[in-house]
Design a protein that fits this description.
The chain is an all-alpha fold. It has one domain (30-217, 237-434): MFS general substrate transporter like domains (Growth Hormone, Chain: A, Up-down Bundle), CATH 1.20.1250.20. The protein has helices at 2-7, 18-52, 55-61, 66-94, 96-120, 124-142, 144-155, 163-190, 195-214, 228-242, 247-259, 261-278, 284-311, 315-335, 339-365, 373-402, 404-415, 418-428, 436-452; strands at 10-11, 14-15. Strands 1-2 form a two-stranded antiparallel sheet. Strand 1 and strand 2 (14-15) form a beta hairpin. Helix 11 (247-259) runs antiparallel to helix 18. The chain starts with a helix and ends with a helix.
Length: 453
């Protein structure tokens, strides 16, 4: 009896050690954190997916021209640029949970204003205010949720790679977007173009309540004692130190505006472009199905990430391949003006994006410290968004003057500019470029070599 008490509970094959109990507890805790992350992430993307398939059509139906519609989208991304770092500081100062709740509330208000602009055929400046507010709300999510996950997992004792977790999120997000884009397209076709936005508002309210109930900062204590001015200066310096001044992170950041920023234009411009190629401008369900097909590839891309990581020895190899595939897909979408081919190329682009995102997230998170994580991630998102701000109005103008096909060719040419930056990241040869197992093997080999000498 005494030996049983000392050794702990008994399992099917004998006594369970305290170490085994601790490992099981850590595994259970990390699993709970991952599941909550997936739930919270989908309450960002499911409401968004309801409108992505019809958003450009919605703007045009609200009385905007192509230039104005893409300028409104650019103002949204301008909001990301302007507010990413300040809201990342909110997450690092007041907590990731507070930041998420603010994001859900502000996005709800911005979405309702967006609907009101469409309903009243409001002036462009009103669309601009609504777009800026939506961008402002999203910035509270962008660094906070990812930072919350990484810190909470470390708190739970998780020591594995982050790529599989981000890939699983990609899978679940793809499934949510698959449902949302189909539903949004057909809701708009059966009711009115503004209906998906009202459904979105309801889901945003639910997301606020869910986060209030299940989200709690773990492995991170908000730093509020230093004073807001001093804290802002400290975090701004950290964003620079661990962001653009950090060479491996810098090159990956600077590549993003070219192949990720132009990809955003490629996705949203596909709505009217596909309807033109299809030959029926009223077939809104087609736009929804095309967007759903892209969402489906997000699922496939997420499943593919573990296999891709086995093929490519380095994360930067994956990023290079995805950037090249994005550029080629965009150019071919402009050259081959056939509905089925363009849809196929859209799917190919989406697979590249789906494979790129989790690998890129894991690479950057491995190179930044916990205390400034949300700020640096927000800084990264801000740099990424500059591509949308700079290129969307330009590409929208090309679409107005020379057609959508020409704008896709220009998009692909811009995306090619990402490749030199990613090659520079590859040359840095940092441990974050490899998986945890590869890094451990390299460390072991280095230790053995040192011992032998």
């Amino acid at each position: 009896m005494r030996s049983m008490l000392c050794s702990g509970p008994t399992g099917p094959t004998g006594p369970i050690s305290l170490a085994d109990q601790s490992t099981k507890a850590m595994n259970a805790e990390s699993r709970k954190i991952r599941n909550r992350y997936l739930v919270l992430s989908q309450f960002i993307w499911l409401p968004t997916s309801l409108i992505v398939g019809v958003n450009t059509l919605f703007l045009l139906d609200g009385g905007l021209s192509n230039v104005e519609a893409f300028a409104a989208n650019a103002i949204y991304t301008l909001g990301l640029v302007l507010f990413e770092i300040p809201t990342g500081m909110v997450a690092d100062t007041w907590g990731r949970r507070t930041s998420y709740l603010l994001g859900a509330g502000i996005q709800l208000v911005g979405n309702l204003l967006y609907f009101w602009m469409w309903h009243t055929k409001g002036p462009f400046w009103g669309w601009g205010v609504a777009s800026l507010l939506l961008g402002f709300g999203y910035t509270f999510f962008s660094g906070a949720l990812e930072a919350w996950l990484v810190d909470a997992l470390k708190h739970a004792g998780y020591e594995g790679d982050l790529d599989p977790i981000f890939a699983r999120n990609q899978i679940v997000t793809g499934a949510a977007m698959l449902v949302g884009t189909v539903a949004g397209g057909f809701i708009a076709q059966l009711a009115v173009l503004g209906a998906p936005y009202l459904v979105r508002a309801g889901l945003q309210l639910v997301s606020f309540l869910v986060a209030l109930a299940i989200m709690k900062d773990l492995g991170f204590t908000p730093e509020r004692s230093a004073g807001i001015v001093k804290q802002v200066k400290t975090l701004a310096a950290a964003g620079w130190q661990h962001g653009l001044k950090n060479r491996p992170v810098r090159w990956v950041m600077l590549a993003a505006p070219f192949y990720m920023g132009t990809g955003i234009y490629g996705f949203y411009a596909a709505q009217p472009y596909l309807l033109d190629l299809f030959g029926d401008p009223q077939a809104l369900g087609v736009a929804g199905i095309a967007a759903a097909g892209i969402a489906g590839t997000q699922v496939a891309g997420g499943f593919a990430v573990p296999y891709i990581r086995r093929i490519f020895s380095r994360r930067t190899h994956v990023l290079l391949a995805c950037a090249a595939l994005t550029a080629a897909s965009l150019v071919l979408m402009g050259l081959v003006q056939i509905f089925a081919v363009v849809v196929t190329l859209l799917v190919l682009w989406a697979v590249a994006f789906a494979a790129n995102a989790p690998v890129r997230q894991a690479y950057i998170n491995a190179l930044i410290p916990s205390r400034q994580r949300a700020t640096v991630l927000s800084f990264d998102s801000m740099v990424n968004s500059t591509g949308g701000v700079a290129f969307q109005p330009i590409l929208g103008s090309v679409a107005d003057t020379a057609g959508y096909a020409a704008s896709y060719i220009v998009s692909g040419a811009v995306a090619v500019l990402a490749l030199p930056f990613l090659l520079l990241a590859r040359r840095e040869n940092v441990s974050a470029d490899r998986s945890a197992d590869q890094s451990a093997d390299q460390s072991t080999a280095s230790t053995a070599a040192s011992a032998s000498t």
